Amino acid sequence: MKNFIADLNKSFESRVRLGIMSILMVNDFVDFGTLKEQLQITDGNLASHINALEKLEYIQIRKQFVGKKPNTSYASSEEGKKAFTEHLIALEKLIKKSG
Fold first, then answer.
1. Bridge partner list, 65
2. Entry pTM
3. For the chain, where are the E strands, in sequence order?
4. Does the CA dihedral 35-39-41-46 come out positive or negative?
5. CATH class belonging to 4-98
6. What is the pLDDT of residues 11-56, one digit of tens each?
């Protein structure tokens, strides 16, 4: 019998990282404030999870100025999209096997 839980990606065990990637998968670029608002978390919490996903090269970061204000936005990288899709497939297999 196959161990479907072994196929889950530990990088997405956190509900915050799962939320970040879910938002980024369906949007081109999302700014920090929008992610924070949608996930209802603190700046520090979001920043630490963004940093972890960046180290894994699962997200892209774009820094620019909007008027005179700095703006940082994020998108899922090709590697991130692949990893997250594989994670979702593993979740579906686990759910189907459990049901």
1. 70
2. 0.90
3. 30-31, 59-66, 69-76
4. negative
5. mainly alpha
6. 999 999 999 999 999 999 999 999 999 999 999 999 999 999 999 9
